[in-house]
From TrEMBL:
Source species, domain of life: Bacteria
Molecular function terms, GO-annotated: catalytic activity
Region called Disordered, residue ranges: 1-23
Protein's name according to its UniProt entry: Enoyl-CoA hydratase
Membership in a protein family: Belongs to the enoyl-CoA hydratase/isomerase family.
Signal peptide from the UniProt entry: none
CDD domains assigned: crotonase-like (cd06558)
SUPFAM superfamilies to which the protein is assigned, alphabetical: ClpP/crotonase
């Protein structure tokens, strides 16, 4: 959901004759890989990094590519300017004419939900570096990440209620799992801006850092993850993400299966060997 104002901050839009992303989508979603870390940066600071459909699809493709690329072992997701992501920019995104039953559900399923699923399903750990406002879908994009770092100036807004809308992008799935149903309802019912310190206090954020330290901290965390046992981290991510959706028997069975799969990897063998040889492990992501 995009709003013309997010918590009192005006979000300018490109002129009507601009293309949907205000320029080539590759310039609006920056991407680079260095030292086994994939960095994805939302780059529409003039719109607080509100996502157009083309940008959303670009992020999905980049996450899928990072997941499949053995040379990528961690991902950092961040934004430029004052915003991490102000949600979905739907200007010009809807077809004119009568809305038919099923149109809205299809749009949500193929749009916002597909983006959040891309983060949750990415086989590499994803670190969100929240540099500013994260509102609506933008907040859920951060919450879907495996680890969330926030600048002190960051804030999180469940903006949907301000527009008479139901949360999308998996918000009603993510928030109760992170902060419990009562806190989730408070955030979603009132739509108040939540500062970074309060977000950390209630468990939405792993750590709050000074604005000037955000990028370096995110890089340090991602570099550490990239040096870890990649397949073990992927399997652990899957186990944790699925843990609240099943009973104990299912969780134990999934854990045993993950252990079986992981023990076929070189990193698992290296971990055991390095322990026996009393030296630091040298993981390769294989």
């Amino acid at each position: 959901m995009a709003a013309d104002d997010i918590g009192g901050v005006d979000v300018p839009h490109p002129p009507d004759d601009a293309d949907e992303a205000g320029g080539p989508v590759g310039a609006q979603v920056l991407h680079g890989v260095e030292g086994a870390v994939c960095r994805i940066t939302l780059n529409r600071p003039e719109a607080l990094n509100a996502l157009t459909p083309a940008q959303r699809d670009r992020v999905i493709d980049l996450l899928a590519g990072a997941s499949a690329d053995p040379e990528v072992r961690a991902v950092v997701l961040t934004g430029t300017g004052r915003g991490f992501c102000a949600g979905a920019d739907l200007r010009g995104g809807g077809a004119a004419g009568e809305r038919l039953p099923g149109d809205v559900a299809r749009t949500i399923r193929l749009g916002a939900q597909r983006l959040i699923a891309a983060v949750l399903d990415c086989e590499k750990p994803v670190v969100a570096a929240v540099n500013g406002t994260a509102a609506g879908l933008g907040a859920h994009l951060a919450f879907a990440c495996d680890l969330v770092l926030a600048a002190r100036s960051a804030r999180f807004i469940e903006v949907f209620v301000r527009r008479g809308l139901v949360p999308d992008g998996g918000g009603a799935h993510l928030l109760p799992r992170l902060v419990g149903p009562q806190r989730a309802k408070e955030l979603m019912f009132f739509g108040d801006a939540l500062g970074a310190a309060d977000a950390e206090r209630i468990g939405l954020v792993n750590r709050v850092v000074a604005d000037g330290d955000l990028a370096a901290t995110a890089d340090a965390w991602a570099t550490r993850l990239a040096a870890g046992p990649t397949r073990a981290l992927a399997l652990t991510k899957h186990l944790v993400n699925a843990s609240l959706d099943g009973d104990r028997a299912a969780a134990f069975a999934a854990e045993a299966s993950a252990q079986e799969i992981n023990m076929t990897t070189r990193d698992a063998r290296e971990g055991v060997t390095s322990f026996v040889e009393r030296r630091p492990p040298r993981f390769t992501g294989r």
